Amino acid sequence: MKRDLPEVIELAGLAPLPKPAAEIVRVLSPLVTPQRWARIEAVVSRRTRSLVPVLEDLADPHNGAAVMRSADAFGCQEVHVIEGRHRFAVSHRVTRGTHRWLDLVRHEGPVACMDHLHARGYEVFVAAMDGDIGPEELAKKPKVAIVFGNEHKGASPEVRARVDGVYRIPMEGFVESLNVSVASAITLYVASRGRHGDLDEAARDEIRARFLLATVRDAERVVKERI
Prior knowledge:
Blueprint: E1 8-10, H1 21-28, H2 34-44, E2 51-56, H3 61-73, E3 78-82, E4 89-91, H4 92-95, E5 103-107, H5 110-119, E6 123-127, H6 135-138, E7 144-148, H7 157-160, E8 165-167, H8 180-191, H9 201-215, H10 219-226
Parallel strand pairs: 2-3, 2-7, 3-5, 6-7, 6-8
Antiparallel strand pairs: 1-4
Helix pairs in contact: 1-9, 3-8
């Protein structure tokens, strides 16, 4: 009998690996089919951490899910979340399981998030109608984080006070703004150009380990017993 899945799910933040990544890969990789292993390797080889979407206080679980789906589609490995009035949750039907393949990093508030990203060398940008640059310029930044704010209020004043710049998506019609799910898809598609496959082997091993933990049945038990 097919198990019913909840429509909306709350996601936990990124947990540390239970054992060294290389050891997890050594133990779990023989437990997946050659076809599945080839798919994991293909995805890992195209992942990047130099482009990071940041979601601040999104209210609609469908929007959060759509951004995560776009992040996976365009090779981003990390998604950062700042919760405000709304607990971060996603629509299971929209993510189609893609949340299992992403590193979700939670932050206590806007200041903590901005400080964390700047300490790691990211330039942080937010969308605005009077933005100085377009998404194409974001693709030229070595490490860039892009904030997608609340559907009604946009990014908070605390975030805006700490970003490195604003960008805009050129529009030629009557509309003045785009839904956050559409804006994120356009931005991540353009800003991801030239980044795919920029991780070193240690970073790839960590992602391989996380993918295997999400793939193999009772993976954590197997790792505990064999390592």
